Amino acid sequence: MVWRPRLLRRFRALVRSDPTGVGAGFVALLLSSGGDLLAGLTLGAITGTLEQLPGLLVLVPAAIGMRGNIFGALGSRLGTAIHAGTFRLSRRRDTLVGQNLAAALALSLGISLVLAVLAKTVSVGFGLADTISIGDFVVISVVGGMLSSAVVLVITLAVAALSVRRGWDLDNVAAPIVTAAGDMVTLPGLFLATYLVGFRFVTPAVAVLCAVAGVVALLLSLRSGLPILRRIARESVPILVIAGAIDVIAGLTIEKRFDSFLVYPALLVLVPPFLEDSGALGSILSARVATKLHLGTLEPSRSPLRAVGEDVLLIYLYALPVFLFLGLSADVVAAVADLRSPGALEMIAVSLLAGALATTFAVLIGYYGAVAAERLGLDPDNHGIPIVTSTLDLLGALSLILAIVALGLT
Fold first, then answer.
1. Element of type H or E holding 282
2. Residue 345: its pLDDT value, please?
3. Is the Cβ–Cβ distance between 106 and 214 less than 8 Å?
4. Which residues of 151-176 are buried (b: 16+ CB within 10 A; e: fewer)?
5. Where exactly are the structural domains of the chain?
6. Which pLDDT value is given to residue 147?
């Protein structure tokens, strides 16, 4: 076990070489956890809407996750550009940043349409009774998704510009902040979009417009004459569709256990920030691995501890206080909102137990996902974060449910 002191020396060297970046990543995770509690509170507060629109909960993790997948990947690509010295803010669409922004918006529109179809298909396929119509799914997914995407796009650019100005490592701060922003604005966006459903003529008309816009956006991006935009679209669409399918299954998992969360609505408050933090931890590792692969400073190994040991230790260092804070703060927020809770100690125990399991999944998927993309000749910036966040939505939901069951809170 000679590698242990060597690994600790590498970790200390990492912290000493970039204390600001490491600290910024930790602060970003805590801020994102706090922000995601608002999303959790929103979810806990709209249980009536979820009951009135059967199947909507199946869409929620996918819609939330897709914002993190698309804009987290955008942040990862911008982080690589900053490290490579090619990052320049510009209004021109043919620049590196311009093509990245165009790709993010086109993917947001097109994949939102795909998610609506997946949510309806999975709901019917797994026997959910009396779900909302495909038109309702399309309107809620596309309109709500684009409302939130516009906000998250601005936040992503602001974080990138601020990182350049302050000397932060964007790989450490982009994923937590961007995914938290996606969580906070996506749920309100979906909720607002629900006001467009249920109208005899308006809802079908809006659904048709959304469907046409989504198909056109995907086709134009896939056949674009701009090489970076075209490559991002062609590499991202397959993995985003797969990620969306995994997220929909995660939503189905929660929908099937919805009654358990109704016993203690405070546990529902825990869902969005827990899934976001799990995905953010894996995304940080994935983004760091992707940057090292691009710069040629990492030689992939079968053992993540040997290849990126100090980065793995950093993820676990982040995880412990984040999930401790999450369990405590979720109980406080639930108490303020007058939502029934099993108790502060039980909330902390659920968060820590599920967090330990989810963080281990995040480390393995974050490392091997980026390395697998690189070995397949794909850009790990385009594939690493979507793989991590979507898989962690499913595994995080399962971890949370397992912890709830293990602690007898059902």
1. helix 265-295
2. 93
3. no
4. bbbebbbebbeebeeeebbbbbbbbb
5. 3-406
6. 92
